[in-house]
Amino acid sequence: xxxxxxxxxxxxxxxxxxxxxxxxxxxxxxxxxxxxxxxxxxxxxxxxxxxxxxxxxxxxxxxxxxxxxxxxxxxxxxxxxxxxxxxxxxxxxxxxxxxxxxxxxxxxxxxxxxxxxxxxxxxxxxxxxxxxxxxxxxxxxxxxxxxxxxxxx
Length: 153
Hints:
Layout: E1 16-19, E2 25-30, E3 32-33, E4 45-51, E5 59-66, E6 80-81, E7 83-89, E8 92-97, E9 101-106, E10 114-119, E11 129-135, E12 138-143, E13 149-152
Antiparallel strand pairs: 1-2, 2-4, 3-6, 4-5, 7-8, 8-9, 9-10, 11-12, 12-13
């Protein structure tokens, strides 16, 4: 039985959503494959902050663009910019992106999210990061297709 719904206008096809710790917000990571060269000037990843405190009236309260690390690069002819993992701890959202690395967004004021940290894997691998695990003050992330594991503070 459906108890809530939010439909958003997106030309992308790879959303990834997680709730915050008190289940009052959902962080919706919006990115996708197949970005054409004429779209290179547009933000390729967006974190939408949704208010879900009333499931009959889910609505977006803010968003923040996640710019890619490389200038519309990527492998072969296909452009890609997709969220791979999103973890929320307290007021911080940790997200990894194909072509965007690890991003840390402060949502202490969910109407005004602010990027407070980022990590890009070395250029020889490109910043295609995947999983996120949090251990105290440490963030563990890995690359998608290369043999890379990174621990950052």
